[in-house]
Amino acid sequence: MKQTTMKQTCALLLLMMGAVAGAENYPYRSDYCWYTVPDHADWLYKTGERARVEVMFCLYGMPQDVEVTYEIGPDMMDATSNGKVKLKNGKATIDMGTMKRPGFLDLRLSVDGKYQHHVKVGFSPEQLKPYTKDPKDFDDFWKANLQEARKTPLHVDSKKVDAYCTDETDMYLLKIRTDKRHSIYAYLSKPKQAGKYPVVLCPPGAGIKTIKEPMRNLYYAKNGFIRLEMEIHGLNPEMTAEQFKEITTAFDYENGYLVNGLDDKDNYYMKHVYVACVRAIDYLCSLPDWDGKNVFVQGGSQGGALSLVTAGLDPRVTACVANHPALSDMAGYLDNRAGGYPHFNRLKNMLTSEKVTTMAYYDVVNFARRINCPVYLTWGYNDNVCPPTTSYIVWNLITAPKECLITPVNEHWTSENTNYGQMEWLKKMKNER
Question: Could you give the strand order of the β-sheet that contains 402-406, starting from the edge strand earlier in sequence?
Answer without folding.
Answer: 155-160, 169-177, 183-191, 226-230, 197-202, 290-300, 319-323, 375-379, 402-406
